Amino acid sequence: xxxxxxxxxxxxxxxxxxxxxxxxxxxxxxxxxxxxxxxxxxxxxxxxxxxxxxxxxxxxxxxxxxxxxxxxxxxxxxxxxxxxxxxxxxxxxxxxxxxxxxxxxxxxxxxxxxxxxxxxxxxxxxxxxxxxxxxxxxxxxxxxxxxxxxxxxxxxxxxxxxxxxxxxxxxxxxxxxxxxxxxxxxxxxxxxxxxxxxxxxxxxxxxxxxxxxxxxxxxxxxxxxxxxxxxxxxxxxxxxxxxxxxxxxxxxxxxxxxxxxxxxxxxxxxxxxxxxxxxxxxxxxxxxxxxxxxxxxxxxxxxxxxxxxxxxxxxxxxxxxxxxxxxxxxxxxxxxxxxxxxxxxxxxxxxxxxxxxxxxxxxxxxxxxxxxxx
Length: 374
Description:
Elements lengths: L4 E6 L2 E5 L1 H22 L5 H32 L4 E6 L5 E4 L6 H31 L4 H21 L7 H14 L2 H30 L4 H27 L5 H4 L7 E2 L4 H8 L7 E5 L5 E6 H6 L2 H6 L2 H4 L8 E2 L5 H10 L4 E5 L2 E6 L1 H15 L1
Parallel strand pairs: 2-3, 5-6, 8-9
Antiparallel strand pairs: 1-2, 3-4, 6-7, 9-10
Helix pairs in contact: 1-2, 1-4, 2-3, 2-4, 3-4, 3-5, 5-6, 6-7, 7-13
């Protein structure tokens, strides 16, 4: 999931917010300012309620970030890189570059987030109790108590045993440890996630029909989101099964020709015509290192005058906007970023481009792997 708004980096991890999280925060702030806070501490002005509501919303967003950061810290401890953290509708997601190496690591990475939420609930709860017992500002302890309750609910909800929730990861780790097969464990967690999501949809529907409560619509919406996410987990399982044992080197296609950043576009086009056509071509520095990609579409759009005057540096897509892979990376670990990318991935070994990897290459490699296994 790509963030809508980038907040910065923490410990080298890019952190961003998806538009759905921003929408939920606006609704949450409105609900606090017009409902929760006035009911819990009546007598204040609308301006005060809104100021406190904004502060509480920011603190809640911070607790969500702490939840995901704990996932990331434990993942890094076990040698798993973290691509980014994105806060979104259902809380947040820490995108890992690969899977935990064993069941114990998988379990601890999964439990780190709920543990952080429970820790936040305890801290806010103690602060709320202290403010209440000291007889201080009523609005403060109501806000702190709400933060404690919501973080506790978040921790418990995340421990429901179904993917993509943390509880689904716990279930996956347990089945992985028991059966010794990670693929089977992921399938079990995905099916459990579908069951949990359907129960949420059913519960929300019954709440709307029999209790005439529109709040049940939130359960229905949440259930559908989880159902789609669980189905994505199942798809991921199928992809991993089809690509088992393969590396990027098994699926990549050698580039037909490479260009140089200082090469005139017209000169490169003249060379490229002599080779098989490709959607993208690697671009190199004068030392032969990867400098990005140039697309066939960009070459075709350039006018004759532009081709004569411009170099590939002017048309290339720089490396920071390209998925760059190592040839020995397990193919299943890179399937998602490759399929999500607009351009084929650039495979680099020792700084030198050695291949290209597109979605079509992934599918072909998976199909051939299935044929080999019979």
